[in-house]
Design a protein that fits this description.
Elements: E1 7-9, E2 14-17, H1 33-46, E3 52-61, E4 69-78, E5 83-92, E6 95-106, H2 141-145, E7 146-152, E8 167-173, H3 185-193, H4 196-199, E9 208-211, E10 214-219, E11 227-236, E12 241-250, E13 253-266
Antiparallel strand pairs: 1-2, 2-4, 3-6, 3-10, 4-5, 5-6, 7-8, 8-11, 9-13, 10-13, 11-12, 12-13
Helix pairs in contact: 1-3
């Protein structure tokens, strides 16, 4: 394992990143998933005990997220007991690096019936060799902090591409978000959500850039099991734009939807 957690707490609002956050492209930068989860954590903590859950969270990556100490500030933009809008900003080296806005909605067990078509996930495969990220160092931290088991598609041909072009990968977060502190189910989901773009890429990483400046997650509920299935696909247009999107499921069915805008361009 690259580290025993993604972050270590160094203050009331300050956290030190570990090697588990390491980006596949730059060892001095963080993968987007752990910071997204850390912002989710700060928002959840800000409404602890109020019966509010994140229904939708939109994140903006304002540039490379450097390794080191980061601080988070949370503000309420639209107060409310049933619906509330909250903003959180993660700053590194004195500058904002990631911004998040989240709509929180009230919840109460048994308040409404479950509706919609039942979604049955494919079975979890047995253990697999962990796939390398093409073009990245084999020891990149985030990749080793997650266990991956592919059903279809995936990095380096880990599994055959499905006829519908969807990559289906079961993923499990292997370390806590913050050392010595519990990780919520939604935080675990956010750790993997930013992988939608990477696992579903259809052009070779060696020749093409896929830059997602943001990440949007709409959650019906948090996952109830440690393994989560990411059903991801992406497409690009000739003008160099694209979209990556995914469904997140657990053993009980559908949990959330993920969407990312993409800048697509040749490398070099």
């Amino acid at each position: 394992m690259p580290a025993t957690s993604f972050y270590e707490r160094v203050g009331a609002r300050a956290f030190l990143s570990t090697a588990a956050t390491e980006s596949p492209w730059d060892a001095q930068a963080q993968h987007g998933g752990p910071p997204a989860a850390l912002l989710t954590r700060a928002i959840e903590d800000s409404v602890a005990g109020e019966g509010l859950a994140i229904g939708k969270i939109d994140l903006d990556f304002l540039g490379p997220i450097p390794q080191g100490t980061c601080e988070i500030e949370v503000t309420t933009l639209r107060p409310g007991r049933r619906v509330r809008l909250v903003q959180a900003v993660l700053s590194c080296e004195g500058r904002p690096a990631v911004g998040a806005r989240a709509w929180l909605v009230s919840y109460d067990a048994g308040r409404a019936p479950r509706t919609g078509a039942e979604v049955v996930p494919p079975a979890l495969p047995g253990p697999q060799p962990q796939p390398p990220m093409p073009g990245a160092a084999p020891e990149w931290g985030y990749g080793r902090a997650i266990e991956w088991r592919y059903v279809s598609g995936g990095l380096s041909g880990q599994a055959p591409v499905a006829a519908d072009g969807v990559t289906r990968a079961w993923m499990r977060v292997r370390v806590p978000l913050v050392a010595g502190e519990p990780t919520s189910d939604l935080q675990r989901l956010m750790v993997i959500a930013d992988s939608a773009n990477g696992v579903s890429a259809r052009l070779p990483f060696s020749d093409w850039l896929f830059i997602p400046p943001g990440l949007g997650v709409t959650a019906g509920r948090p996952p109830s099991s440690e393994w989560m299935l990411l059903e991801a696909s992406s497409w690009s247009e000739t003008r160099g734009t694209g979209v990556a999107h995914a469904r997140v499921l657990d053993s009980e069915g559908l949990c959330a939807f993920v969407a990312q805008p993409l800048l697509v361009a040749p490398r070099g």
